[in-house]
Design a protein that fits this description.
- The chain has nine helices and no strands.
- With 240 residues, the protein is mainly α.
- The chain has one domain.
- Helix 3 packs antiparallel against helix 4, helix 6 crosses helix 8 and helix 6 packs across helix 9.
Amino acid sequence: MRCTDMYQNSSSIGIVRARQDAASIFLAKVFNWMALGLGLTGLVAFFAAGSGITAAIVASPLFMMLIIAELGMVFFLSARIDKIQASTASGLFLGYSFLNGLTLSAIFLAYTSTSIAATFFITAGMFGAMAVYGLITKRDLSGFGSFLFMGLVGIIIASVVNIFLKSTGLYWVISLLGVFIFTALTAYDVQKIKTMGEKGILSQGEVAIKKGAIMGALTLYLDFINLFLMLLRFFGGSRN
């Protein structure tokens, strides 16, 4: 009886470790793609602002065209990920990161480089802390998904409305709520990606793994960028 119990315990421990290893491998792929996207965005934004390209883009209809193109790429990638090739998915992700670098370079016209760098490190610290929480917590965060999505939709609607109202008070409320929502989304999304790894995405083949990693990277990339932009409203030093 004791031998049977020991065998069952060791078997259970082995299964748990195998799931943890699978989750770790998949998460590493996701974070590598995310880091690549963020690095590309940062480099493009920095060099575009320094070369004067940003000022020309912002002053022309091209800026809005780039934003529309970015939204189209995100929606297309999310909707067609199961049908497109892995190389197409990776190309779209890198293309989106490049275009986002061009549009984000506009922050260098509004804020000082020092405050942008400081806010980036604050964002990285908050993002990292919530990512670790999402990895180690035993609490199931899936129940918060609907609530966070509703909050995200609310922020988008309120931001559009405030374009016409131009309310300073509403601006700061949106910013504060945005910080809380994207901070929470980081933990939620990391746990969701970890669960994908534990449920066996590594057994589905290289194509499925790469597509899953790219979608996970895009999700976390968007969490990071949006959290950064919300925090920049509080910590960004205005360029007078």
